[in-house]
Structures are given as C-alpha cells and as structure tokens.
C-alpha cells in the first residue's frame, strides 16, 4: 500500500466524520420514529383528551377553546410537527391527574429508577463477570454447570414473582431487610421535613445530609429490589462473559503466554480479561438498558417511587400524557445507552469499523 | 417380535442411508442425525420433556384437573397445600389451585402459539423483502425495524395495551407487534447470503418474479435460523404475557392465567404464601423448559455453535 502518511490521516478523518455523521443521522431518525409511534398511540387512544381536561359538564365554547389550545383543530401533520417541537423542548404536556407538567413529574421520579438500576448493574457486574470467567476456564465442570443453570434460571423467572418470593423470604420470614417503599413509615414522614433532596436518590441524599440512621434504613430497603434486578442482569452478563472468555482463551497469544511460563491467574485475569472487557462494555450498557424495563414490574412490587411505578399508575388513571411522556423518556434513555455502547466499542476496539 | 425389531432396524438403516434416493429421505435422515445429537444433551432433553408435558397438560386438562377451575366454594377458601383433594391448596374464592394451573396451561399455550405464528411471519416478510431488494427499500425497512428495537418491549406492549384495551387478544397483538424486529434482522442476514447464489440467478433467468423468488426460494432458507430464534424467544413471550396479566392489562379474570393468579395471591402473600407461589412456579418451569430446549436446538442446528 503506497499511501502517503497525510492522505492516510485525511481518509481516517473523513471516515471518522462520515461515521459520526451517520451516527447522528440514524440517532435523529430513530428518535423521530419513537416520537411518531407515541404520537400515533396518543391519537388512536379512545380517550378524548379535551374531555379529560374540561370534564363532562363543559359548554361547547369551553370545549372548543381547550381543543384549540391543545392544537387538536390543526391538520394531523401539523399536530405531529408541534408534538416533535414541544418534545424537543422538553414539553410533554400536562398530567391529567395532577395538572402538573409531565416533565417535572418525570424529573422527580426518574432518579429513584436510576439509583435502583445502577445498584443492580453494579451487583450484576461484580458477581456476573467473575462467575463467567471461572466457568470459561473450566468448561464442562460442575462450577460451569452451576453458573449455566443459575443463569438460565435468571432468564426464566418472572421478575415480579421473584420479587414477591424475595419479600416473602427475606422480609416476611427472616426479617433481614426492609419491606416495600424506600424507607420505614416513620422515616418516610421525617424525610419530608428533614431531608434536602439534592439528587432525588435516597442513598445519596441521606448520606449528603449526614443522616446515617436514615441511610442504613434506606439501604435495608433498596438491597432486595436491587439484588433481584441485579440477578437478572447477572444472568445475562455471566453468560456473555463466559462465551467471550472461551473465545479469548483459544487465541494464540494465550498459548504463548502460557509457554513463557506466566502464572495461570495472570494469563486469565490480566491478559485475557483485558481483551474480554471490550465486548463486555456493550453487554453491560445493554443490560443497563434492559433493567429499565425490568424496573417497571419490580417497582410496582416494591412500591418504589420510580419511572416504572409512574407509568403504570398513569396507565390505570388513563392519564395518557403521563404514559406517553414516560414511554418517550424510557425510549430515549434506551436509545442513548445503545448508541453509547456502540460508540464506546468503536473507541476501545480499533478493529471495529 | 423379531420381525418388529427387523422393521425398526430397517427404518434406521433407511434413515442413515449415505446415498438417499429421494429428497424426503435426505431430509428425514438429516432430522434423525440432529435428533441423535440432541439426545446426547441432557439439559435439552429436560427442556423437551417440560414442553411436551405442557402440551399434554393443555390437551388433557378436563381429565387431569381434579376440580372445576371456575367453581367457587367459599367454605373451602385459602386451604393450605396438602389438604386432601387440594394438592396445591385453594385460592381466596375456594377454587382448586392445581386445577387452575392445569387449565391455565391452555391460555399460556394459546398466547405462545398465536405469537409464534404471527410475529415471525411479519419479521420474515420484512426481512426477506428488505434483504432481497436492498438499496432504498432496505434502508427504510431496516430503519423501521431499528425504531421498534429501540423500544423496551414491555413498555411498548404496555402503551399498546393502553390503547387497545386489556384482554387476551390485545395482549397477543401487543406482544407480537413488539416481537417481530429480531426475526426481520435474522431473515435479512440470511437473505443477503442467499441472494447472490447461483440457484437464485437460475430461477431469475427462468423468468420468476420477485414475489415468487422470495416466497419459494429465499424464505425456506431463512426458516431454520428463525425457528431457533422463535424457540429461544418463547420464554420471553411467556414472561411478558404473565407480566401483562399480573398488571391486570392482559388476560382478565376469572380466566386462570398464571400471571393474573400471582397478582390475586399478592394480597395475602405473607399469610397464605401458596396462592402467589404456585402459579409462579408453573411460569418458571415452563419458561425454563423453553429456554433449555431453545439452547439445545441452537447447539444442534446451528453449525457455528457446534464446536462449543
């Protein structure tokens, strides 16, 4: 290849730009599609949004006024344009139950979900990665079978049932952990008055306020839902780690390292694991995204005031702006995490094109 | 007896014939070899047994169930497991839990079968068309697929059910509408490898149109990988259906759907634990069965995995 250095760099740059442009374009298209789907769901729904605002006894004039204010007299394509414009500015309309802007409510509920999902992911990585590595180094052994079966069980259990069983065993029978909710009832009352909500995450807020008694109580409440969510993500992470590791251990540089007399733990935990980390980043990002989904059911079981509870509560109150606003936010986070894992992968692994 | 044995040996020899005389013989021989490979995988056989038991349970429900799943008897409510006549106890209306689980297998199977025949067909159609034509069509269809993949499945299903209203058919529709994108991806990838092969060129030269080529010559090639994917996805479908039922958005009472039964037992979880526990065990065992079977099938049918 007789390519001069500068032109090579130029083509690299052009390539990177084209890739970056492609990513931005496809991100924009996906987001637009997401909004299109929620827009259609919102239009097809058999609840009259005007009636939901004005009530049954409104006069025709009031009805028309609200209809105009909501932009429902415009043609459909124009309505969609307005919807996208508003959504880009963080406006998802008003909640029908509380009359508050949906985006403010979501801002209040979201941190709790984020906290739960983050703890669960940490748990999944801490347990899942070593389990996968150990299973891969002894394929077919008893420990490999155990990791595989425990993982498959994680795939096969309904997360809401697992949550109930966890409550029954660890809260009802053993009394090791706190029950549903973020705090005990007594602390819950205190929280309203004595706690400054810096972040909206209960563990961080209690710690920042220096209320360690409250922190301990919050910890006893979060450990079970986070552990159960973490189990499902551990199942996924350990399985993927195992297969990546198996692949890596078959490579020639591993044989070379072994022949040179490198201790086996170093071969596995330093050399091979370093390369396994690359594809593992995408796996962890994806499992983080899936936890958002798992949190919908888990939060209803544990009365956890997060986005999942928000969406399901809104659903039963026929509060469509809230449901769709929540759906869009979850979708955006989901798309964002997917995109992030994609970009990280490209950054870390120079072979990926 | 020896005659029967001879005949059996004859059938196996016919199946193992290295030079098959007909297409059917070749196909059946291939299937027999796959079966032999799968029989060596104990976990896959456990999965197969569970799925077969589910089929038997659903088919013979009226004969297997000791009680009517709908008849209420308030004098016999919330009896613990092991009570004579009620192996798994009774629920808050005095209905026999075992009988309800047995009848519930029909509902689970109904949902699984409906999703398994609708979502893959849609995915196959979109994937093959996208892969065969390429270019602009491919761009548009794959972008749509990406959008649906970008939604978390349960949340999209929730939003759809909110629009369609709760009920078993709407739950199936919502699940199917969220389940097709992976099949489209798989089918498209298969199509891309098949598209440029000589036999497709030969059919095209004979004057076959695009619909005929896609339907008759491309789709059959995509089927094996799609079928493996379907088996692996069935556990997920069962879990989402149960989740919708649990939230009260899927199958409606008094139908004995397992997720719904768990949610009705939630009220007395700490006093009468069995009401919520038993149907959950049923969901767990069945979806574990599908997962084990799907894993085994993939190992057997997908040569890329056979080395592991």
Automatic annotation (TrEMBL), chain A:
Keyword match Transmembrane helix: yes
Superkingdom, taxonomy of origin: Bacteria
A cellular component annotation (GO) from this entry: plasma membrane
Domain ABC transmembrane type-1: 110-341
Transmembrane domains' residue ranges: 21-41, 116-137, 149-174, 218-237, 268-291, 322-345
Bilayer disposition of the protein: Multi-pass membrane protein
InterPro entries: BPD_transp_1_N (IPR045621), MetI-like (IPR000515), MetI-like_sf (IPR035906)
One GO MF term: dipeptide transmembrane transporter activity
Subcellular location: Cell membrane
Keyword annotations: Cell membrane, Membrane, Transmembrane, Transmembrane helix, Transport
Pfam families: BPD_transp_1, BPD_transp_1_N
UniProt xrefs under PANTHER family: D,D-DIPEPTIDE TRANSPORT SYSTEM PERMEASE PROTEIN DDPB-RELATED, DIPEPTIDE TRANSPORT SYSTEM PERMEASE PROTEIN DPPB-RELATED
Family: Belongs to the binding-protein-dependent transport system permease family.
UniProt-recorded name of the protein: ABC transporter permease
Organism: Aliigemmobacter aestuarii
Lineage of the species this protein comes from: Bacteria, Pseudomonadati, Pseudomonadota, Alphaproteobacteria, Rhodobacterales
From TrEMBL, chain B:
This protein's UniProt keywords: Cell membrane, Membrane, Peptide transport, Protein transport, Transmembrane, Transmembrane helix, Transport
Record InterPro entries: BP-dependent_transpt_permease, MetI-like, MetI-like_sf, OppC_N
All residue ranges annotated as the ABC transmembrane type-1 domain in the record: 109-294
Superkingdom, taxonomy of origin: Bacteria
Pfam family, one: BPD_transp_1
Annotated membrane topology: Multi-pass membrane protein
Chief location bin: membrane
Segments traversing the membrane: 43-65, 107-133, 154-179, 230-252, 272-294
CC terms in the record's Gene Ontology section: plasma membrane
Gene Ontology terms: biological process: peptide transport; protein transport; transmembrane transport
Cellular compartment(s): Cell membrane
Family: Belongs to the binding-protein-dependent transport system permease family.
Protein name: ABC transporter permease
Source organism of this protein record: Aliigemmobacter aestuarii
């Amino acid at each position: 290849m007789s390519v001069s250095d500068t032109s090579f760099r130029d083509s690299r740059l052009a390539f990177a730009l084209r890739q970056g442009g492609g990513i931005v374009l496809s991100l924009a298209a996906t987001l637009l599609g997401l909004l299109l789907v929620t827009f259609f769901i919102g239009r097809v729904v058999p609840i009259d949004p005007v009636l939901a605002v004005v009530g049954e006894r409104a006069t025709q004039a009031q009805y028309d006024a609200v209809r105009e204010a909501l932009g429902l007299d415009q043609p459909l394509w124009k309505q969609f344009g307005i919807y996208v414009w508003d959504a880009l500015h963080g406006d998802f309309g008003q909640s029908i139950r509380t009359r508050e802007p949906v985006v403010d409510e979501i801002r209040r509920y979201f941190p709790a979900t984020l906290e739960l999902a983050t703890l669960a992911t940490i748990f999944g990585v801490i347990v899942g990665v070593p389990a996968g590595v150990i299973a891969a180094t002894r394929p077919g052994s008893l420990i490999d079978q155990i990791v595989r079966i425990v993982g498959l069980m994680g795939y096969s259990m309904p997360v809401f049932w697992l949550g109930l069983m966890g409550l029954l065993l660890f809260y009802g029978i053993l009394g090791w952990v706190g029950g549903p909710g973020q705090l005990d009832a007594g602390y819950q009352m205190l929280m309203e008055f004595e706690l400054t909500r810096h972040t909206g995450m209960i563990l961080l807020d209690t710690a920042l306020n220096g209320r360690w008694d409250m922190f301990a109580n919050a910890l006893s409440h979060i450990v079970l839902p986070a552990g159960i969510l973490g189990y499902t993500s551990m199942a996924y992470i350990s399985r993927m780690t195992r297969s990546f590791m198996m692949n890596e251990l078959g490579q020639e540089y591993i044989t070379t390292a072994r022949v040179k007399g490198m201790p086996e733990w170093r071969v596995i935990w330093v050399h091979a694991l370093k390369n396994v980390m690359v594809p593992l980043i995408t796996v962890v990002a994806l499992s983080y995204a899936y936890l958002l989904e798992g949190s919908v059911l888990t939060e209803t079981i544990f009365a956890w005031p997060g986005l999942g509870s928000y969406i399901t509560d809104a659903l039963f109150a026929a509060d469509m702006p809230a449901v769709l606003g929540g759906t869009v936010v979850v979708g955006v986070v989901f798309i964002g995490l997917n995109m992030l894992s994609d970009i990280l992968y490209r950054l870390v692994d120079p072979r990926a094109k | 007896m020896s005659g029967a044995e001879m005949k059996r040996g004859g059938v196996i020899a016919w199946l193992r014939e290295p030079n098959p005389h007909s297409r059917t013989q070749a196909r059946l021989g291939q299937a027999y070899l796959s079966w032999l490979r799968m029989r060596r995988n104990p976990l896959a056989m456990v999965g197969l047994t569970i799925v077969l038991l589910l089929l038997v349970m659903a088919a013979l429900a009226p004969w297997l169930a000791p009680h009517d799943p709908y008849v209420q008897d308030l004098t016999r409510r919330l009896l613990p497991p092991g009570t004579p006549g009620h192996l798994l106890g009774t629920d808050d209306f005095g209905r026999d839990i075992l009988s309800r689980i047995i009848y519930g297998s029909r509902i689970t199977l109904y949902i699984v079968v409906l999703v398994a025949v609708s979502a893959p067909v849609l995915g196959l159609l979109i994937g093959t068309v996208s892969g065969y034509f390429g270019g602009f069509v491919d761009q548009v269809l794959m972008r749509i697929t990406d959008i649906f993949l970008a939604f978390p499945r349960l949340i999209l299903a929730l939003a759809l059910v909110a629009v369609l209203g709760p009920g078993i058919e709407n739950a199936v529709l919502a699940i199917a509408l969220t389940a097709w994108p992976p099949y489209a991806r798989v089918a498209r990838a298969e199509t891309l490898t098949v598209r440029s092969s000589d036999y497709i060129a030969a059919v095209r030269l004979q004057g076959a149109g695009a619909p005929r080529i896609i339907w008759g010559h491309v789709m059959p090639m995509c089927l094996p990988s799609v079928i493996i994917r379907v088996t692996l996805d069935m556990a997920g479908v069962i879990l989402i259906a149960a989740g919708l039922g649990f939230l009260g958005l899927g199958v409606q009472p008094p139908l004995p759907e397992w997720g719904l039964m768990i949610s009705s037992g939630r009220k007395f979880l700490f006093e009468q634990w069995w009401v919520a526990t038993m149907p959950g065990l049923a969901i767990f065992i069945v979806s574990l069965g599908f997962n084990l079977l799907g894993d085994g099938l993939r190992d057997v049918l997908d040569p890329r995995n056979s080395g592991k």
